[in-house]
Amino acid sequence: MSYPISGSLYYMDKSFDRERIGRELDAQRDAGFDLVWVNGPLFRLADLKLRAASDEQAAFDPIACLMEEAHHRRMTVMLEIMAGEDWYERWDLPADLETSYELISLIGERYGQHPSFFGYYLGNEIYIVHGAQREYCKTLWTNLARCCKQATPGCKVALSPFFVTDIAEVLGYTYEKPEAYANFWESMLTGTDIDILMLQDSGAEHASCFPLDDREPYFAAVARACSAAGVELWGNVELAEITVSNYEELKAFRSDFGVNGVGFHDPRWVQVPLSKLRDKAGLAERYCSRLVSWGFQQFVSPLSGKSGAAAYYEQFQTWNTSRIAK
Fold this sequence. Notes:
Layout: E1 5-11, H1 18-30, E2 35-39, H2 45-53, H3 62-72, E3 76-81, H4 87-90, H5 93-111, E4 117-122, H6 131-151, E5 156-159, H7 178-189, E6 196-200, H8 212-229, E7 232-236, E8 240-242, H9 247-254, E9 269-271, H10 274-285, E10 290-293, H11 296-300, H12 309-321
Parallel strand pairs: 1-2, 1-10, 2-3, 3-4, 4-5, 5-6, 6-7, 7-10
Antiparallel strand pairs: 8-9
Helix pairs in contact: 1-3, 2-5, 5-6, 7-8
């Protein structure tokens, strides 16, 4: 069975006004999306507290605007909960629980009752961890998912982890076989209120040289884990990739700049060729009940400014909307 990519991760900051939000959502809706999951600095605790304390009639709230504009387009919205972008450097469970509880309270009270609200996205993207780091994730997610359900009854709670196929560990990630992912995720999800796991199909690599055959065992393993834990598996089918031939080239691309290299403007960042995207979607839908994505805003949207985006958007729109059940 084929079905469309139905939404994409969307970054927002305080520069977003109503006109920009509307144009962005139009591009997404017209491409076949009906879900937008959102992250960015607007979801940091200091920003949320500032908006909560402001005069609601006088201050423009980009998140509230997004919720309204999404509702007008019959789209739903999932909002991020993450204590801080440096969480994986600190692993400070007490502090991150405290911050996250405040985030859930503020977001739930201010946005959780809006008709376009779908749920919460726990933004800690991870693969397999052990020891104290594993306990951090299990405790954090168990408690936050429960808190989300209490704050907004009927909401959905989602994660979006990745997997690592770099056997030689060139990039510095610890390699684990697919079966380890099945065991890890069944253990992590069982007994929690997490509803959805959105598995990134390119993990932390984003490399164009990453063959599809290497990905399938991980989808199969995580699908087994989700089935055992009663959690819905979605495929996060990424729309952009880095043009490299091997992991050594990818390591050089990153250099001292991090996962994205010098930035998305680097010409080695490209849209996934449509023929390859078809194959990626085909792989994901063999195991997943719904497809979402990353990279639309930065690489595919006609508003992105990325080279080739306008032409690619037309092709993507035609392909993706053709997959919507009539």
